[in-house]
Write a structure and sequence with these properties.
CATH class of the largest domain in chain B: Mainly Alpha
Order of helices and strands of chain B: HHEHHHHHEHHEHHHHHHHHHH
Strand order of the largest sheet of chain A: 6-7-8-3-9-10
Distance between the termini of chain B: 70 Å
Radius of gyration of chain A: 19 Å
Largest sheet of chain A: 6 strands, mixed
Bound molecules: adenosine-5'-triphosphate, magnesium ion
CATH superfamily of chain A: P-loop containing nucleotide triphosphate hydrolases
Shape of chain A: globular
CATH architecture of chain A: 3-Layer(aba) Sandwich
Number of strands of chain A: 10
CATH topology of chain A: Rossmann fold
Structural class of chain B: mainly alpha
Oligomer: heterodimer
Number of helices of chain B: 19
Largest interface: A-B, 29 and 20 residues
Distance between the termini of chain A: 33 Å
Radius of gyration of chain B: 33 Å
CATH class of chain A: Alpha Beta
Shape of chain B: extended
Number of domains of chain A: 1
Largest sheet of chain B: 3 strands, antiparallel
Helix content of chain A: 25-40%
Number of strands of chain B: 3
Helix content of chain B: 55-70%
Number of helices of chain A: 11
Number of domains of chain B: 2
Order of helices and strands of chain A: HEEEHEEHEHHHHEHEHEEHH
Strand content of chain A: 15-25%
Chain lengths: ~300, ~450
């Protein structure tokens, strides 16, 4: 089922008229998600982000099909699913990184708190300061470790003095669990660190601007188990202050770090629910196949 | 239906892989060896030509860096230089210094008599000698009235003779230097009054009809001003164009068209740009002919596509992960380009630009079209002064029959090559410096 922006809008408006107060669990009025294939409860009590009727097209290709999902405040939600199912695509919708792809077209509604992030009045610069991102491959800037972390606060004008900036950089590195390793080499290039350290540097860089949501696209896929464990530990700590969305191919990782899990399949959001429930008692056949297939 | 009966095992698996590979191994090694030989032969051939070229140019041009001077006793006669005795600069400037030189020559060879003989004697020194004396007196008026031994520039024919480039056995009428002159030169040489000194004139003066007075200073300055204009125009415009096309422009039919046209421009023969410059800058805008400004404009047209193409290649080679990182941090597009992409692309852009500039330095055809081929004695002092450039100077000198110009042609080529090497060295240096900043 493919919907145009207009249809989605109409559907939303109708929904607003029909369903009133009792349904109001999230700030966005919900459409007929009962008719969708998604199994499980897509809404949460305290949503940070609310996505409704999201469709993504790469040219003719329909990569995300009418996905609705709430992301709760201060939760870690994992996106899982087979390769090419659209996890990254959906994730990149949440901070509008897909804007850079000229053939990519997005319809539907995504809200961060009360703001529609695809609204004309929203500047991507501001959005991306609020929704940070950590990529699959560690991609520190080819500048010093210090500069890597200082970059975000600097371009957003978050600090006034050098001392404040120094503190912020140290604090971010500390929260990313990297400070001990880099204390003595702040002026060395970020690219001279090991892969795991680089990824933690990227996390430090992301949290330096104090975002509300952090998107992580397979942050550990290039790392060894020890570095992975460190990052997972870090994610757990960061949950206190941030909402984290993590794409992962590792079931174990999803099970370890997330509270909720969403399973994507060929652009559809098949099932979403508490992580424990998804892994122990999947309701949808596809989810079960995927999970059992992986667990052997 | 019918179950496949156990077919006899095929032949191939029975032969083991080792023998199969070994059978082909000799052939593979031979091919590799052959290829290596082709490479070696190609490199040797290339190097031979380079060495031959350099040997030829240096062999021909080296003598031009030395110039013959004759020591002449000069009396700075006050009655000639300053008849009024009031040290009037006007009078001092217009005095008959050639007369002083002639007197000096007569003093060297007091026995020479007769108009023709004397004329031949005076012909030993360059006509520039008078200017030399004038300069000395103007700089130091205290010289007036004194006597001094002065090293004066010898004429080109004497210089050529001393460099062994005139066959003394030829008939007198076929030589540029006469028998009596040769005799005098030999005498001077025996007396140690003639010697070769480093040729500073080559680097300090402009073009001249007299080879011994001709230098490349004018052409060098012309080249400098022309390249200055070229660089100041084509580098910023080229970089800005490359950045816009690569990072900001929407990909549509118009940008495709622009891209194709830029690529085509890079392949347009340079003389066409000269014609364009003549039509547009000189005939339409009325800029002066032979001016470095126009030359620079024309060469900018020629260099721009090269810089744009190199710039775009440098930009595309910046990894997309860096762009994503910057955008993901909330950098605007301009910040992404300015803070991250451009610094990383700069070495490539600079290399492209310097290669483009080196090409512009060696370009002569389009400059012929806009009149930078004129015979210009004065060293240009600005963008509007008529001037020529090094390659055109080489072209002009190579057309002249005098032996002294032949060696100057080669000397000028050596200077041009030296600048090319310098520029390429600069390109490497800049690249290294930028690369060290990761
Ligand atoms: N830039 C693009 N242009 C065209 N199609 C794209 C583009 N990016 C992704 N796609 C297509 O969209 C679909 C979803 O891709 P996406 O990258 O979101 O998958 P994924 O779930 O992240 O896969 P993986 O687990 O392998 O990373 C794929 O079929 C892919 O071919
Ligand atoms: Mg992906």
């Amino acid at each position: 089922m493919s919907t145009t922006a207009l249809e989605t809008k109409v559907a939303l408006d109708q929904a607003l008229d029909l369903n009133t107060a009792p349904r109001k669990q999230s700030s966005v009025e919900v459409t007929d998600y009962d008719n969708r294939q998604t199994v499980g409860k897509i809404t949460v009590d305290h949503p940070k982000m609310v996505c409704r009727g999201v469709n993504v097209y790469y040219g003719e290709k329909h990569a995300i099909k009418n996905v609705g999902l709430d992301i709760g405040a201060n939760e870690v939600i994992a996106f899982i699913g087979p390769s090419g199912c659209g996890k990254s695509t959906f994730l990149r919708c949440l901070n509008r990184m897909n804007d850079t792809i000229s053939i990519c077209r997005i319809t539907g509604q995504i809200k961060l708190d009360e703001d529609d992030i695809y609204d004309k009045s929203v500047d991507v610069v501001q959005l991306r300061a609020r929704v940070g991102m950590v990529f699959q491959k560690p991609n520190p800037f080819p500048k010093s470790i210090y500069e890597n972390v200082a970059y975000g606060p600097r371009i957003h004008g978050m600090v006034n003095t050098k001392a404040e900036l120094d503190d912020l950089v140290r604090d971010s590195l500390e929260r990313a669990g990297l400070i001990k390793e880099v204390e003595k080499r702040m002026n060395e290039p970020g690219t001279s660190l090991s892969g795991g350290q680089q990824q933690r540097l990227c996390i430090a860089r992301a949290i330096a601007v104090n975002p509300e949501v952090i998107l992580m696209d397979e942050p550990c896929s290039a790392l060894d188990p020890i570095a992975t464990a460190k990052i997972e530990e870090l994610i757990d700590e960061l949950r206190e202050n941030y909402t984290i969305i993590i794409v992962t191919h590792s079931m174990q990782q999803a099970a370890r770090v997330s509270q909720r899990t969403a399973y994507f399949h060929l652009g559809d959001l098949i099932e979403v629910g508490e992580t424990d429930q998804i892994f122990t008692n999947p309701k949808h056949k596809l989810t079960e196949d995927y999970i059992t297939g992986r667990f052997g | 239906m019918n179950k496949p009966t156990a077919s006899p095992p095929t032949k191939i698996p029975s032969r083991d892989i080792k023998t199969i590979v070994n059978a082909g191994l000799a052939r593979r090694h031979a091919a590799e060896r052959r290829f290596r030989w082709y490479g070696l032969i190609a490199i040797t051939l290339g190097l031979t030509f380079v060495v031959l070229m350099f040997a030829n140019i240096i062999g021909k041009g080296y003598p031009a860096f030395w110039q013959t001077y004759i020591q002449v006793p000069i009396t700075f006669d006050a009655t000639v230089i300053d008849p009024q005795g009031n040290r009037d600069p006007q009078a001092i400037e217009t005095a008959d210094y050639a007369g002083l030189v002639r007197a000096g020559m007569r003093q060297l060879f007091p026995t020479v008599q007769g108009r023709l003989e004397l004329r031949a004697l005076y012909g030993l020194v360059s006509s520039d000698a008078a200017h030399e004396l004038q300069d000395r007196v103007l700089q130091n008026p205290a010289l007036i009235g004194a006597s001094q031994e002065v090293w004066l520039l010898a004429s080109a024919s004497v210089d050529t003779l001393l460099k062994g480039n005139i066959d003394r056995t030829l008939d007198e009428s076929e030589r540029p230097i006469k028998d009596n002159q040769i005799e005098w030169v030999d005498k001077l040489q025996a007396a140690g009054k003639i010697e070769k000194q480093f040729n500073t004139i080559l680097f300090t003066s402009g073009d001249s009809r007299e080879p011994e007075q001709a230098g490349i200073r004018g052409a060098l300055m012309g080249s400098f001003f022309t390249l200055l204009v070229t660089f100041l125009l084509s580098f910023p415009i080229g970089v800005a164009t490359a950045v816009y096309l690569e990072e900001f422009a929407p990909k549509n039919r118009w940008t495709d068209l622009i891209e194709v046209n830029i690529n085509n421009l890079a392949a347009v023969p340079s003389i066409v740009f000269g014609l364009l410059g003549l039509a547009v800058f000189i005939n339409f805008f009325g800029l002066p002919r032979s001016a470095p400004l126009v030359g620079g404009l024309v060469l900018s047209l020629m260099t721009l596509p090269v810089i744009i193409i190199a710039g775009r290649a440098a930009l595309t080679s910046v990894p997309p992960s860096i762009r994503e990182a910057a955008l993901g941090m909330g950098a605007s597009k301009l910040q992404m380009v300015g803070h991250h992409v451009l610094p990383l692309a700069m070495p490539g852009m600079l290399t492209g630009s310097i290669i483009g500039m080196a090409r512009a330095l060696g370009e002569s055809a389009p400059l012929l079209m806009i009149g930078m081929v004129a015979f210009i004695v004065d060293v240009p002092k600005g963008l509007m002064d008529p001037s020529t450039v090094l390659p055109v100077q080489i072209y002009l000198w190579s057309d002249l029959p005098e032996r002294a110009f032949v060696e100057r042609t080669s000397a000028a080529i050596m200077v041009l090559l030296a600048f090319m090497i310098l520029m390429n060295g600069l390109a490497i240096l800049l690249r290294k410096r930028f690369e060290r900043r990761w």
